[in-house]
Amino acid sequence: MSKEVVKVRIYAGLHERFETPVYFLLPKSNLLTKNLSKAYLETERERFPIQLKENKEFFEAFLIVPHMNVQETLEGKIVLVDAEEDKEEFSYSSSDGTIKISYNEQLIMGYNYGNWLKKPYFYPVVSPNGVRVTEDGPKDHVHHRSLWVAHGDINGFDFWSEFENSGKIEANEVKVISSGKIVFELSSKNLWIENTRNVELYEDRFLRIWKPTKDLLLDFSISIFNNKKDTKFGDTKEGGILSVRVNEKIKVQNGGKIENSFGGINEEETWGKRAAWCNYSGKVDGRNVGIAIFDHIENFRFPTYWHVRDYGLMTANMFGVSYFNGSSKMKGDYILPKGEVLKFKYRVLVHEGKDPNYIKSKYIDFIYPPKVEVLY
Fold first, then answer.
1. Last residue of a domain, one of 49, 84, 119
2. Choosing a second label site near 333 at 20 to 30 A (CA), which of 93, 126, 205, 239?
3. Which of these, 203, 199, 194, 205, lies nearest to 225 by C-alpha position?
4. Both 320 and 174 in a single domain?
5. Which domain holds residue 72?
6. What pTM was estimated for this model as a whole?
7. What is the pLDDT of residues 100-147, one digit of tens each?
8. How far apart are alpha carbons 54 and 309 in whole angstroms?
């Protein structure tokens, strides 16, 4: 038995959709408040789960639409069922400065934020077919921490390297926001502190993980600010607001491949180039795997420059302009005024070695998602 709560209409728009994340808001309802874990979207052809999160004035709704054709409209009703039908969901455990995130009891990701670290970072990152996609602290660059946020010149201080006198990014407050059938959400308030303990930068980091059947989607929202003084982001190639060091087995030197949104291949055609996305893929023990970073169209200096190397590094760096253009006259320095916020949005796609057309379709889902109308 089920109870209808509200109707919704989803518009695919001008693109075909496959396992696409959808987010929208719902009005407050006492019925929903008491049954947050039992909500489903029911259409004429199928029923699929919705995850709800209650806020002060509304509910946030999350679902993954399996397939929609170009310009298709999907209409359905949100219903509450008497019994939980889908047991697959996110779960997590926390200890010693680490949060381990699992889906269907399989580890997919970890967040490492202990105060003994130079910076908080995400490791491991595991593909849907069970491959560890990233590398933590390889011997050639021990400061490359799997999946991380850092920059090599903040007011003249280095938060990229991990020398004794390097700056430190401290996770001051880490919280799990939600964990359910569709998404897992995590927030981390971080302080960028130089070696004499002055705070140079404040960072609010938010991660939302989606788990489609074939992929892992990581949505990052990163807000950077300083309410006490101006902050200078220096022109250097040693940095990037979001960076990845891939598994050693899939770097180009071991048979892997880099490709960007313009079709550039490997370091020769992608390093220092601007692009909407960049993808690194290869094989690990015979299994195809890949990881891509998507730059959002609203981000500062979109499309970003890429500091991407055949030895396994891939980072979105919009500040190292003089290095990437080979000209000291083209500087990438940026001064963030006191009290203003610099915001970045990225999606990281962890996949099973998909081709560029697939990567492109997932990028479209990110920047032009389906639209939703709530029918009261």
1. 84
2. 205
3. 203
4. yes
5. 2-84
6. 0.96
7. 999 999 999 999 999 999 999 999 999 999 999 999 999 999 999 999
8. 43
